[in-house]
Amino acid sequence: YGDASQKMDYVFKVVLIGDSAVGKSQLLARYARNDFSLDSKSTIGVEFQARTLLIQGKSVKAQIWDTAGQERYRAVTSAYYRGAVGAMLVYDISRRQTFDHIPRWLEELRGHADKNIVIILIGNKSDLEEQRAVPTEDAKEFAEKEGLFFLETSALEARNVEDAFLTVLTEIFNIVN
Ligand code: GDP
Ligand code: MG
């Protein structure tokens, strides 16, 4: 409704990237709708979901984009990255290969996105501790070297998901203010 108090102060586009099946769509579902599905179909068509939040008294619309199941190298188009001010670079802590591909994703991101884009590295599926294939320390070290934020999350258990999005959105907010 046209209530002046609901006027949006900012719209921030944030993109999710990373290998197939690391949990990008479920992280988005958890953040945008507090929903989770164990048998999520692979994403069809580029889509985004929005969530509105208040940061320091300003209303911010987070427009979070999810890949169209185009996770193969160079399949994500430049339109996907256009205008993005934040990026969540996601791997699965139980599959080493998804972490080994992170430098490639980072290179692609840096090639397409604004150079001031805020990036967080996310080790998802932290609930699968018994199957862990990526030590936290390795990821932390990589993130520090590359100047990225870093968190381990579980979309399944809703662990650190809010924090991950809030970290990126607050940092973007601080940059534009
Ligand atoms: P995407 O291809 O990166 O979008 O991955 P999806 O979000 O479709 O998730 C792939 C699979 O991993 C699905 O079966 C999800 O239910 C599962 N999944 C996603 N997040 C988690 C998580 O945090 N923990 C566990 N155990 N499974 C997850
Ligand atoms: Mg998906």
Bound molecules: guanosine-5'-diphosphate, magnesium ion
The mean pLDDT is: 90
Number of helices: 6
Largest sheet: 6 strands, mixed
Q: Cα-atom Rg, whole angstroms?
A: 16 Å
Helix content: 25-40%
C-alpha termini separation = 27 Å
> How many distinct beta strands?
6
Helices and strands, in order, run as EHEEHEHHEHEH
> Which overall shape is indicated by the principal axes computed on the Cα atoms?
globular
SSE-based structural type: alpha/beta
Report on the structure:
The chain has helices spanning 24-33, 78-81, 96-100, 102-112, 136-146, 161-176; strands at residues 10-17, 47-55, 58-66, 86-92, 118-124, 149-152. By secondary structure, it is α/β, with parallel strands linked by helices. The chain has a six-stranded mixed β-sheet with strand order 2-3-1-4-5-6, sandwiched between helices. It starts with 9 loop residues before the first strand and ends with a helix. The relative contact order is 0.20. The mean pLDDT is 90. Keywords: GTP-binding, Lipoprotein, Membrane, Nucleotide-binding, Prenylation. GO terms for molecular function: GTP binding; GTPase activity. It is a lipid-anchor. It is found in: Endomembrane system.
